[in-house]
Amino acid sequence: MIPKIDDITGIPTFITSDFDEPILYTPARTEFSQPCSSLKIITAFTDCDRISTHMIKLSEGMKNSRLIKGLSIEIILGMTKSSLSQKKHEDICRMIRFLNTSKGMPKISCRYICQGSEVHSKVYIWTYPDEHVGDMPYIAFCGSLNYTMNAFYKRRESVSMCNSLEAYCYYKNLLPDTIDCFDPSASEKLKNVINNTAENFVEPDNSEKDYLVYDKETPIDTLNVSLLRADGSDTGYGSGINWGIRKNGTKRDQNQAYIPYNHKDKKAGFFPDRENPDDENCPMFKVITKDFGSFHMRMAQQGNKALHSVESNAILGEWIRKRIGAPAGGYVTKQMLELYGKTYVTFRKYEDGTYLLDF
């Protein structure tokens, strides 16, 4: 089938592959006279990996002015009985909290269907602001495409453009049956909805299962990276694990952190480096932890002397403090790491470019 092309956006009206650009980014491009600024998603299933990679790319597009600034993403998760465990609920909340407190990221919300029938629909609606009516629907898509990594990259799916006003009205009509994932009463209201039997999941968030799968395989390489200063003396203020804690009192999220990648720890080719010297950033890579889900990292700073988490540079700090039993945002010393039993983290690299991160 030869897809028809929309005269204004250049988006095919029927899409069976390469969903990312036309559905998740193109309507927000600044080259259009009226770029869209909000994407509303109705999905049966989702996962943290899909959410984070989408937000990272949107952030990069806003930064280089390819996409309009001030983007927002609103998600309705429909198949709560089939896909939402208490752990997944907590993982979604944690990831969205990191994203919403990270400078330069789009604003994102996630609501769960908590009453009435489950929703199996997959609809993507782009809107732009109108001074008279607020959100004005501009373009919408519907089909078989869940807002998951599997649907976007591993399966055969199809999506068609649909009536944007009707899609927007459908979205609005679902809202009364939803609850915000951060609502303090969400867990209580969903106690009869949330499914804690993992084997019944149709579309699970696989980070914990993936860790166990990779853990049984042999990595192609392993690297220990110290959390201390280059001389091994201590951690220090305003750097490394304590990057967000400044002696001068500068207001930051005190969980902000990076892993020092000092010369004595470096191993050429272990982490992906810039393909071209002029590239602004090193390529990011996915890491999976045993107890803190998955997220993305990259080498950063001059001379690639740091490793940081891309979704938010507070992820590493919160994870390490949680592991050693330190309070969130608390100052971490060498002695605290030694009492825990490790002053370094371990990366295990696998053939497909995935890493396990242990501490």
Describe the structure.
The chain is of the alpha+beta class. It has two domains: 14-202, Endonuclease, Chain A; 213-358, no CATH class. The protein contains ten helices and 15 strands. It has helices spanning 20-25, 48-63, 80-83, 86-100, 149-153, 164-174, 186-189, 207-215, 315-324, 334-340; strands at 14-15, 38-43, 72-77, 107-113, 123-130, 134-143, 159-162, 178-180, 221-226, 259-260, 285-288, 294-300, 306-309, 344-349, 355-358. The chain has an eight-stranded mixed beta sheet, with helices on both faces. A seven-stranded mixed beta sheet has the order 9-14-15-11-12-13-10. Helix 2 (48-63) packs parallel to helix 4 (86-100).
Kindly give the count of domains: 2
Q: What spatial form do the alpha-carbon principal axes imply?
A: globular
Strand order of the largest sheet: 1-7-6-5-2-3-4-8
Helix content: 10-25%
Distance between the termini: 51 Å
Short description:
The protein contains 10 helices and 15 strands.
Brief descriptors of the model:
alpha+beta, 359 residues, Endonuclease, Chain A, 2 domains, eight-stranded mixed beta sheet
